[in-house]
């Protein structure tokens, strides 16, 4: 039996205005397992009206920071209660092993809600000394006010975690929201909205409209009732969103893709570097924005490191994640499967060597073997473009300067890792790479207190931590004449 999913607007589960639906297909079996409402512009109008009503004088707008924090703490407890359910929802939609979201995504989401809850009553303004007004003294102070109604557009790769990054910060700041989940992964966003209702958030504060990006996402970007659009997804769509939403001067935050470098120096602990690089490359089938897909290895250890990384890739068991021993599921959808295979074929055409893996034959399910290229240069498309699959490219370097230059020779700038046992080199390289986050001898952790975001084509703005909460506020200045 297939599940039937509806929008969640103003506290109610509702169909699309024209009753249209989208089929959700399992990447493992290629069978339809659910349908979701295919949202229309009028569904978006309804959701924005509900969110506006709460922001502009509704019960939500009258709650203070401590009350908002309490609701967020309650929501965190409910997410904790439903941890396995939420993890399974995300895993089912994209064919991922449920162990990963159980151990990483949902615990991160819970931590993010609690961290933001703690900030909700600590958003302080400042008093600022001024030169006065026409010879008379004044008092000037600032207030941090909610930016308004937010349109949150989310991708499919870590849906619950990324939705929560946005939700936690914007609710702590006092905003309301219309969430547009990815076409493939609406389950966890709808469940989160229901949990918000159970936690006691007033109806209309959190709304979810499911459907197509070009319809629902675009309507949010154009809607005069939306004050800020926060988007996580591909650079192509990010550019379009910033053009459409920017036209009406909406605030825009973009978390986009990456082609992150993992830089392994010859003084690194080899075993730890191999383990870390393999994880950075293959977790979630490589469908991770920060995936470390360019592996830069210093010449003296290149051979040893490469054979160990190939062995690590070959130890991964690909298949239905529900089967025991399977550590990697399929990629999330047919387009993704075709894209990954296209890039592998292109890598071979451009002269790189497949050390393990390679183009996948299609039987049932979108399975791709972990693939590593050697004999590659940073100019090849497999080193320049975000493939968003389990494909890594090894590039050999000689000096620190060369490693930094290769790492920075990318249109992206999301994350990097540096593997070395020399303290000064670690800091020097970490400072020199133009990215949002660097891990030294580890993969940069996604911690609720650490800001997350990229430079260059990897995005605009930061999510999580205090920086994330502040990004949903406007600083207002008030000056009082003191004659
Ligand atoms: P995508 O850009 O195709 O879609 C993302 C969302 O945008 C979806 O909800 C989609 O429906 C919507 N959308 C599509 N067209 C739209 C339009 N014209 N107007 C408004 N909304 C529209 O991305 P994806 O395939 O879902 O996700 C993969 C991408 O996300 C990768 O590039 C990945 O690196 C990136 N990502 C980045 C981060 C980060 O934190 N930087 C995290 C996860 C994923």
Structure description:
It is a single chain. This protein is an alpha/beta fold. The protein has two domains: 3-256 and 458-480, Aldehyde Dehydrogenase, Chain A, domain 1 (3-Layer(aba) Sandwich); 261-451, 3-Layer(aba) Sandwich (Aldehyde Dehydrogenase, Chain A, domain 2), CATH 3.40.309.10. Helices cover 39% and strands 21% of the residues. It is built from 15 helices and 22 strands. The protein has helices at 41-55, 65-81, 83-94, 99-119, 159-172, 187-199, 213-222, 235-246, 270-282, 299-314, 334-349, 381-384, 400-408, 423-432, 465-470; strands at 3-5, 7-9, 12-14, 21-25, 32-37, 138-146, 149-153, 176-180, 206-208, 228-232, 251-255, 261-264, 294-298, 353-356, 371-374, 391-397, 412-413, 415-419, 437-440, 455-456, 459-460, 473-481. The strands form six sheets. It has a seven-stranded mixed β-sheet with strand order 14-15-16-13-12-18-19, sandwiched between helices. The chain has a six-stranded mixed β-sheet with strand order 9-8-7-10-11-21, with helices on both faces. A hairpin with a 6-residue loop joins β4 and β5 (32-37). α2 (65-81) packs across α6 (187-199). The chain is globular, with a radius of gyration of 23 Å. It binds nicotinamide-adenine-dinucleotide. Nicotinamide-adenine-dinucleotide (NAD) is lined by residues 153-157, 162, 180, 182-183, 213-214, 217-218, 221, 232-234, 237, 240-241, 255-258, 289, 386, 388, 414, 454, 459. Nicotinamide-adenine-dinucleotide binds next to α7 and α8.
Total beta-strand segments: 22
CATH class of the largest domain: Alpha Beta
Query: Which fold name fills CATH's third level, the topology of the largest domain?
Result: Aldehyde Dehydrogenase, Chain A, domain 1
Number of helical elements:
15
**Mass-distribution shape:** globular
| CATH architecture label of the largest domain | 3-Layer(aba) Sandwich
Number of domains: 2
Give the percentage of residues in beta strands. Answer: 15-25%
- C-alpha end-to-end distance: 74 Å
